[in-house]
Amino acid sequence: MALSREQMAKRVASELKDGFYVNLGIGIPTLVANYVPEDISVMLQSENGLLGMGAFPTEDEIDADMINAGKQTVTARTGASIVDSAESFAMIRGGHIDLTVLGAFEVDVQGNIASWMVPGKLVKGMGGAMDLVAGAENIIVTMTHASKTGESKLLSKCTLPLTGAGCIKRVLTDLAYLEIENGTFILKERAPGVSVEEIAEKTAGPLIVPDYVPEMAV
Amino acid sequence: MAGFDKRVSSYEEALEGLADGMTILAGGFGLCGIPENLIAEIKRRGNRNLTVVSNNCGVDGFGLGLLLEDRQISRMIASYVGENKLFEQQLLNGELEVELTPQGNLAERVRAGGAGIPAFFTATGYGTQVAEGKEVREFDGRNYVLEQAITGDIAIVKGWKADTYGNVIYRHTAKNFNPLMATAGKITVVEVEEIVEAGTLDPTEIHTPGIYVDRLICGTFEKRIEQRTVRA
Q1: What is the mean pLDDT of chain B?
Q2: Chain B residues near residue A165 by CB distance under 8 angstroms
Q3: CATH code for position A161
Q4: What confidence tens digit (pLDDT) does each residue in A46-57 have?
Q5: Which of A176, A214, B60, B221 is most buried (most C-beta within 10 Å)?
Q6: How many domains does chain A divide into?
Q7: Taking each helix axis from N to C terminus, what angle separates B103-114 and A85-93, rounded to the nearest 10 degrees?
Q8: Does B94 contact chain A (CB < 8 Å)?
């Protein structure tokens, strides 16, 4: 069975370490916050300037001056700090964020990522995505392995306009966890009950399949 | 003698000198921390052919979206737009030109502009459309793109509190681009929720020192929320 969005978030959450500063993108990455293991503490960065994003507010706590990068009302957690946009991106561009999780439309074996221009739709902008992919050392891309029409999103070469070049090393899809190295995808884990053959079939770019591919624990 | 007293008595006075074709730097992220009364005053003045530098362009009927109604903006530099139908329509009609800039580049370009740095190299956007036509240089085996600073004729900024000398404090994430824009305008106009006597604010807590501020005015704010999210 392909992983649900929640299971994908849970798998990514297992990469979190105690004391990590983490930036989560919109969509599945946002859900990762719900699965932070209880015995560790992480600080979520929101690129509009909030380091230490907390839960959504209660009705009484709503404050128009306290939002996240998705423009949602939020709260600040214990130990939070708030900075201006240049400093917020200095944290990102200076490589101070321990883990960045973001979605994509396509990833290729050169580590290129396309995530900001939807084909056939009006371009709204890249927001902070280009800064995030260029600045972070440790990035996990989350996306479905193939489009709804069955087209692979793991390619030899991205077809859509890039968000960043040569910056992605790790991808979690609904079918597999893969790493990118020396111009190829390497299959590291498969979703429970998903065969290596199905993953290979839905991976358009070169793929190395080790002799043993463990099932993910989700 | 006004000395360091930056207060002006009306919004009309606050934007005196704003002319057609000028570049406006506007603080705010989405609708959070936007100089809403200064934007409304620009609409009232009716200046046209404006270039606006801001992370976003408001929504239909509020914030910078108001300036689209009478087609006052001809060029927009932003990282994310299109929360408003009017924007989309004017973009597709060719009435509005847009330069999409990565958010971190936008912030740093304005910061650089205010700090007298004409350009800088950044890894952001290398190998993408954003880098097309720009100088690329390698440092320690990695490629970087030359990005140019941004300055403006008038910066419009929303603060929380200020003293009469124009020392400004922002509140929570309403800070965002505001302190950056404040440094990069030939004329910087700040509107705040409260003005106190100079000497009242703790100097160590000032975010924008009065040296950057030319005009200061106290206003009342709607503070519209874009995405109202609550927990159960």
Answers
A1: 96
A2: 126-128
A3: 3.40.1080.10
A4: 999 999 999 999
A5: A176
A6: 1
A7: 120
A8: no
